[in-house]
Design brief:
By secondary structure, this protein is α/β, with parallel strands linked by helices. It has one domain: Spore Coat Polysaccharide Biosynthesis Protein SpsA, Chain A (Alpha-Beta Complex). It is built from eight helices and seven strands.
C-alpha cells in the first residue's frame, strides 16, 4: 500500500516549521505534497526554503493556480501524486502528527479487509479550549447530521480536516461533475463519492488543537451557504448512489 499526503496551506507562515517536522516523522507516507493557495504572508517561500534544506526527499511544494479554494487545491495536487491512497491533512497545525500517525495505522490495518474511508473526529471532549468557536461547533454537528441519510452512516465530524481514502475516488465520479465544481471545500463531495463506491467509513478520535498562528480563511455565512447547497444537491441527485 502506498499513501501520499496532500497538505493545503494558505497564510500559514507561522506553522510551516511544525507541519514540516510532523510530516517528516510520518514514515508511512510515500509522498508529501504541499499546495499553497496564494498566500500573502510568505508561506510559499518558507515552504520552498524549508523543503530545500530538508533531507526528506518525499516532499514537494506546488503553487495553486486559479481557481482557488481548498477543493480546487486537492484536485490540482492529485495529478502530482502517484500513491494509491490519499491523506488530506490541513496545514493549520490543529491536528498533531501523532494523531495523523495513529489514523494512518488504523487505516492501513482496516484496508486489509476492504476499501475504507477514514475521517478524524475532532468533536471530542479532548479538544483544546478555543479550538472551536461555538457557531463552528454547532455547524459541524449540523452538517454531520444532514449527511447521515446520504451516507447511510453517522460520521461524528463530516467536515474534519483529516481524511484518508483511495485515490480512485477522484477519478471515478460519473454524474457528479456539477458537485465537483459546486463544493468549495470538498469534504462532503469526497464523502458522497465514498458512499457511491461503497467504502466502509471509519472515525478515529483526535485532539483538536487551538490555532497558534493566523486565522481560518473560511467565511462562516458564505461557507455555510455553500455547504448547504452541496447537501441539497446531494439529496436531489444520484451522484452518491
Amino acid at each position: 500500500m502506498s499513501i501520499g499526503a496532500i497538505i493545503p496551506v494558505k497564510n500559514e507562515f507561522g506553522n510551516v516549521e511544525s507541519i514540516i517536522f510532523g510530516a517528516s516523522n510520518l514514515s508511512m507516507l510515500d509522498e508529501i505534497i504541499f499546495i499553497d493557495g496564494d498566500s500573502t504572508d510568505g508561506t510559499l517561500l518558507a515552504l520552498v526554503e524549508s523543503i530545500k534544506n530538508n533531507t526528506d526527499k518525499r516532499m514537494q511544494v506546488i503553487k495553486q493556480r486559479q481557481p482557488l479554494g481548498k477543493f480546487e487545491a486537492i484536485k490540482q495536487a492529485i495529478p502530482h501524486l502517484k500513491s494509491d491512497h490519499v491523506l488530506i491533512w490541513d496545514g493549520d497545525n490543529t491536528i498533531d502528527y501523532l494523531d495523523v500517525s495513529k489514523s494512518l495505522d488504523f487505516y492501513v490495518e482496516s484496508s486489509k479487509k476492504r476499501d475504507v474511508f477514514l475521517v478524524a473526529n475532532r468533536l471530542t471532549s479532548q479538544r483544546e479550549s478555543k479550538s472551536f468557536r461555538f457557531i463552528n461547533l454547532v455547524g459541524n454537528h449540523f452538517f454531520s447530521i444532514l449527511m447521515t441519510p446520504i451516507l447511510n452512516y453517522k460520521l461524528p465530524d463530516a467536515l474534519s480536516g483529516l481524511k484518508i481514502f483511495p485515490r480512485y475516488l477522484l477519478f471515478n465520479h460519473d454524474n457528479c461533475s456539477k458537485l465537483l465544481t459546486l463544493d468549495r471545500y470538498g469534504d462532503l463531495t469526497l464523502l458522497s463519492l465514498g458512499r457511491k463506491h461503497r467504502l466502509m467509513f471509519l472515525s478515529v478520535s483526535c485532539i483538536y488543537r487551538a490555532r497558534t498562528y493566523g486565522k481560518s480563511s473560511i467565511k462562516r455565512i458564505s461557507g455555510g451557504s455553500n455547504l448547504l447547497r452541496v447537501v441539497i444537491h446531494l439529496f436531489s441527485h444520484r451522484c452518491n448512489r
